[in-house]
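[09:14] KT: can someone run the structure on this one? pasting the chain below
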Amino acid sequence: MLYIQRYCNNCLHCGLLILSLTLFSTFAGAQSPSPTPAKKDALSRTEPVTEAPKDLRWVFEVGGQFRDADGERPSKFEEYKSIRNGFLLRRGSFQYNPGTSPYLFSFASRNVSERDQQYFLEGRKFGRFRTIGKWDSQPHLYSRGATSLLTATSPGIYSVPDSIQLNLQTLDPPMAGTTVPNPALIAAVQGYVAIAPRFDVRSQRQSIMFEQRYNVNSNWSLRFRLFDTKRFGERPLGTGSYERIGTAMGDTFRAHAIELPAQIDQRTTNLTFGTSYVTRNWGVNFDYTHSNFRNNIDSYIYDNPFRLVDQPTTGTGGAFNRMAFARGLHSAMPDNQSDGIIITAFLNLPYDSRWAGAFGWERWTQDQQFLPYTLNTQTAAPFDVTNPANLPEPSLDGEIESLTVDQLFTTRPWKNFIFNARYRVYREENKTRQILFPGYAAFLEGFWRTSIVGSFGTRLIENEPASYTRQKAGGEAIWEVTDYFKWRGEFEWEGWDRTNRQVEKSNEYKFLTAFTFKPTNKVKADIDYRYQNRKPDAYFPGPLENQLLRMFDQAKRVRNDVRLRWQWAAMPKLGLAGDFLYVADDYDENFYGLSSYIERRGSIEMLYNPQDNLTVYANYSREHYNTSLRSVAKTGVPFDIRNEWIRADRNVNDNFGIGLTTYLYRAKWFLDVNYNYNLGRDLITTANVSAPAPSAILNATAYPFPEAEYRMQEFSIDSNYQLAQNVALGIRYLYEPFKLDDWQLNNLSPYPIDRLAPEIDGRKFLLLDSRYSSHNGHIFTVYLRFGN
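[09:31] RB: done, structure tokens below
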């Protein structure tokens, strides 16, 4: 609970950057009535409008659908969508906009009969006010057919029958060393799992948004925005520990894990009040935001299926009998609040120049009560660790303040040349007080530890609030050399000043050169090259056990980045476009951690309109990612360099799509057909730098991993025929075959002890079995669409 939860939709600084860069180029209130839009199918291509525009437009769609999905775990088919059998109310909408009136009113709904529903409401008077309301519901199905020995008895509380706890505790008394697990224990757990109820693990996200804008006059506008989000349901939550058991040939491990169906009951409310005053030559904008996050489940308390009574750890330093508590305790995200302001302004200057500036301030607070150290009454501490009164402080009383200043000056000294100068500073100061704890319950609440001792020395148990200042300064020049050739150059310096991080100060220098080539209206190409060099002044590993390990976000890094984009109107009705990207990050190979990252992406797209009523499109893209990691097996401190190994990860994704949209038979028959294919492959290889030490053969020898692969295909057809002026009869069909072969998931089960590596003892390794596998999915829909 030593943190403050924040959300991107409450980030002042994202909006700050956008506002400062746009330079108030448009004024929201300066709108004029627009022509009535073409009639559209929300899930299809634009339909041609053959009749005169109408003041009132409406459409709704009803029908019936059939779904079928086969496979061991077809949960992926409905991971982020809801598909039901039977009656279907797919969408409905209407829009009223009299041609001579400045008023407009519209309403739209989508997937009304499903879990993934959307509603949109808008009313406006052009140039005066705009009112928007939106409601959205988004499901997330983690898995069907999950299982657990734990049952939720109240929010955040999970219990196991005492009879099960007593039986498993009897069959697995506290032991150390290399004792082989009791076969009766394994048989008992398998029996309990076999009769445990099956259930779905799913969550739901619902949000409502209301926005009001009002233009007092042509210069002055007011606005208000409310965004409220609820999230409820369940998600998988893993808890666990391990025991290291040494042998003459290396270490073996005893793994402990209990995966919880963690309940979710969260709500976030964001409020924004703002005003703008904009004239031809200057403008100012002010916004106040407030965010409130509330978590109605602040902790998870769960019975340990393997223990009815608490037991202490055994062995030196609590090396054995870990996770031997009767009840476990896990904290959830705490309630927190934030308040902030943004002030932005611009001023037009002589000689085609403009200044824009932005100032932002925000404050986050969190003061939720601490949970006790543990619920394990056998933890060997000098006081009652289950009583929160024995904590040094009742709560964190967390507070973080941020300050942002963004300045931009742009000028055009002559017609074909633009120069921009920019300076930004972002300061995040963690004002949370430092709290010294007398110790903590290590190894999942079983062993009392008063300090951490390692190759770095001894550290007390206390929080270390981290703060930092990030500055950016640079300039950009844009030169239109000719009508068909443009050059852009940029230089930027970025400096970090951190507190309580491994690197206190670092500097990064960035250089960019870019060219735009447009010899004709049919051909255009852009190519960019960026070079970045980040150098930390000094690196202090701090509490890392491996003092040679480097954090990739602070380590020395050189980046080369090349990007190419092109467009070609090959024929009057044929267009081609593509892009290519290459990014290479090189890290200091003298240390452990990430040593290199290479990303390559390329795509090509085609759009062909041989006739006014026919569109054919196709696309292909490939993404290629390579990472290299250097590490060393832990066989004591200091680490033995003979036990080094290299891990290389190669991930390749291919995507192909093709489709057509057409209108036939006097534009009464609409047809949309498309096919998409996605192939993903991931190969992890490991290799020893040299022969491992004889005493570390088991845990330092590199082994090959099989390649993981998934294939996702989707074929869909949507066709409808206009039976009458306001009625259309249609069908839709979706076929989705999904093939998954992933060694990380293939062997999972609620109790996978017989599928673990021989050096892993998983006698107390219980999972939800919340996963998905290969499937074939079908959806067939018949519908009637009414509308004008």
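[09:33] KT: thanks! The radius of gyration is 31 Å.
[09:34] RB: yep, looked fine to me
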